[in-house]
Structures are given as C-alpha cells and as structure tokens.
Specification:
Number of helices: 2
Number of strands: 7
Strand order of the largest sheet: 1-4-5-6-7
Order of helices and strands: EHEEHEEEE
CATH class: Alpha Beta
Shape: globular
CATH architecture: 2-Layer Sandwich
Helix content: under 10%
Radius of gyration: 14 Å
Largest sheet: 5 strands, antiparallel
Strand content: 35-45%
Bound molecules: iron/sulfur cluster
Distance between the termini: 27 Å
Length: 109
C-alpha cells in the first residue's frame, strides 16, 4: 500500500509555499526530496490511501498502488488522475486488465 510519484510529472508546485499534496495529506506523510525537489510518501505503511494527495495534484503525478486481496487471486489496483476524474486499472494477473473511469466526486477547488 502507498503512493508512488512519477518524478517526470511532479514539478514541485512552483510558486506555492506549500505543495498541494503536502497540504492535502491528513497524515502529514508527503515530503519533498531536497535533492530532486519531487514529492514522495515517506511512510508507505502509514498511508491510508485516502487519495487526498492524488486528487490534489494538478499534474497527476501521484498514483496509489495497492494489492487488494480478492479471493482467490491478488488483484493489483492502480489509480491515476485523468482530467477531473480517476482511472482505476485492475490487473488480476499479468495478462488481464480492467479499466474503470470515474468522474470527480466533487469540485473542492
Ligand atoms: S506531486 Fe503534484 S501536488 Fe505534489 S508537489 Fe508534485 S506536482 Fe505538486
Ligand atoms: S493517500 Fe492519503 S494518507 Fe496516503 S499519502 Fe496520500 S493523502 Fe496521505
């Protein structure tokens, strides 16, 4: 469980005193790598996968990747921001893939 950063997409929220993902995380789990100037989740085990950081990032740089036990197989779930919504990609095995797209739950902006 946790959140990964696409370092090619994260731009460190230029012009902001506090990065949007850092401000969004209720667990204060997002830090900025001082060398790379990119966001990262510093404690993947503590991440509750609330998706607040994922939804806050305007560049879609954050992706939660979670193993979901779905008997009898393990399904890999990847969630990405696409436009105003989320794209859920479920991979029950190496060959199958199911993609679901959801609209944004609300407009907090
Ligand atoms: S991950 Fe997104 S919200 Fe966080 S610093 Fe990078 S661009 Fe900003
Ligand atoms: S998914 Fe939620 S708990 Fe996890 S790092 Fe992002 S904001 Fe924090």
């Amino acid at each position: 469980m946790g959140v990964t950063t696409d370092k090619r997409l994260c731009d460190n929220c230029p012009g902001r005193e506090l990065q949007l993902c850092v401000a969004a995380c209720p667990g204060n789990l997002i830090d900025i790598d001082p060398q790379l100037l990119r966001a990262f989740c510093r404690d993947q085990r503590a991440c509750r996968l609330c998706l607040a950081c994922v939804k806050a990032c305007p560049r879609g740089a954050l992706t939660p990747v979670l193993p979901v036990e779905c008997a009898p197989v393990t399904v890999e779930v990847r969630i990405e921001t696409v436009g105003g919504g989320l794209r859920w990609t479920l991979r029950p095995d190496a060959e199958d893939e199911l993609i679901l797209t959801t609209e944004a739950a609300g407009d907090d902006a």
